[in-house]
Amino acid sequence: MNDDIVKRIRNFNRYYTAWLEVMNKEYLKTDFSWTESRVIFEIHICPGINATELCEHLNTDKSYISRILMKFEKHGLLTRELILGSKGLKKYG
Asked: What is the 3-state secondary structure (H, E, C) of the chain?
């Protein structure tokens, strides 16, 4: 599937899930926010993804993603690995 189609489908889904309030915490039965849940899902479907790629996939602010990743790492929900020769990029899984 081409990237433009995937992006359009994701935008459609985000708009309507927000509009319908489908992703509220009571519905998800989780303490994670909608964005935190999306980050976990992206890491699950894209093992080895890095923070920059997460920001691009989720169209989300880099500092917000960074705080979420630090929170998850602190709670043992993910591990990160330094990618040698890539100016300190880290991948998550």
From this structure: CCHHHHHHHHHHHHHHHHHCCCCCHHHHCCCCCHHHHHHHHHHHHCCCEEHHHHHHHHCCCHHHHHHHHHHHHHCCCCCEEECCCCCCCEEEC
pTM assigned to the model: 0.63
Q: What is the pLDDT of residues 37-73, one digit of tens each?
A: 889 888 888 888 888 888 988 888 899 999 999 999 9
User: Sign of torsion, CA 74 52 40 12?
Assistant: positive
